[in-house]
Amino acid sequence: MKGNNKRKHRFLEVFGVSVMVLALVRCVFPGIATSSSDVAEVADSLTVDSVANELPVAEVVEEPAAVEPESETVLAPSVSARYVPDGERYHRIRSVSSYKTAFPDSNSVQLIAANRWGVKPVKNRLDAEERKDELVFIDCSPYYYIDPLHSSIPYLVPRAAVLLQDIGQAFFDSLQVKGVPLHRFIVTSVLRTQEDVAKLRRHNGNATENSCHLYGTTIDICYNRYKTVEDPDGPSRRQVRNDSLKFILSEVLNDMRQQNRCFIKYEVKQGCFHMTVR
User: Fold this and answer.
1) Which residue of 73, 170, 191, 242 has the fewest CB atoms within a 10 Å radius of its CB?
2) In a domain, 76, yes or no
3) What is the 3-state secondary structure (H, E, C) of the chain?
4) Are 157 and 277 in contact, with CB atoms under 8 Å apart?
């Protein structure tokens, strides 16, 4: 009995202390006490939607679509392509801003170089045969094609022959780095004898009597026709527009002119680049 009284007395002491502490807290912070009605109002305002709006929303991440495997067949790149399948870069075809501006050298300008580096005018074909110590015979080449010549013969001074060979090699190199099938440009006129010039002037009023072609220093390269280099045992070459080949050839010739290797005139009516070694 006495034990129960002690426990009861101890409980009353603890309860009294708790009441006093709560009373002090309420005095210091009066807003801490909330009536049961207020609690009910707060509970009613906490609807499902409001709670959902307050909670952070999880970001939805879509699964990536299945990627189809790349085809093993790789199409041949076009002329304008920048890269080949293995990642090696092709060079763009740029041409020149203006043919007339890039190649403005008139006959009078080229004639000075022809007189400096050329031979004395050749009278006829027999005279050309007898002057092989001064002239180089040009015919078949892997880099260029000699058109059937009617008003000239395939002879050049050594300096001009080297220039022609260098142009052909540079043209091939440029075609390769641009991813264009190999083609040979066509030479349409080379050395003209005095007899050739006289015959030419009978039906061509624009032909000059003192032509640079008389000195073996001058070459005409056609810009609207080309010879495709074909492998007889390999696949057929894809078609390439002559304009694209003309653009590339003009780049090569512009480089040669900038290096002071030659003078060049863009001939519209004759459809050629008329050039003289310098």
Assistant:
1) 73
2) no
3) CHHHHHHHHHHHHHHHHHHHHHHHHHHHCHHHCCCHHHHHHHHHHCCHHHHHHHCCCCCCCCCCCCCCCCCCCCCCCCCCCCECCCCCECCCCCCCCCHHHHCECCHHHHHHHHHHHCCCCCCCHHHHHCCCCCCEECCCCCCEEECCCCCCECEECHHHHHHHHHHHHHHHHHHHHCCCCCEEEEEEECECCHHHHHHHHHHCCCCCCCCHHHHCCEEEEEEEEEEECCCCCCCCCCCCCHHHHHHHHHHHHHHHHHCCCEEEEEECCCCEEEEEEC
4) yes
Q: Are 142 and 234 within one domain?
A: yes
Q: For 141-182, how does the pLDDT look when each residue is reduced to its tens digit (9 = 90+)?
A: 999 999 999 899 999 999 999 999 999 999 999 999 998 999
Both 128 and 23 in one domain: the answer is no
Would you say residue 83 lies in a domain? no
Q: What is the CATH number of the domain that holds 273?
A: 3.30.1380
Go through the chain and tell me how many residues it has: 278
Examine the domain organization and report whether 148 and 262 are in the same domain.
yes
Single-letter amino acid code for the residue at 142:
P
* Residue owning tokens 């099938």: 181
pLDDT in tens, 63-119: 334 433 333 333 333 344 444 444 456 678 888 989 999 999 999 999 999 999 999
Taking the alpha carbons at both ends of the chain, their separation in whole angstroms is 136
How far, in whole angstroms, is CA 187 from its chain's centroid?
28
87 within domain boundaries: no
- Find the radius of gyration of the CA atoms of the chain: 46
Provide the domain count of the chain: 2
- Would residue 82 count as lying in a domain? no
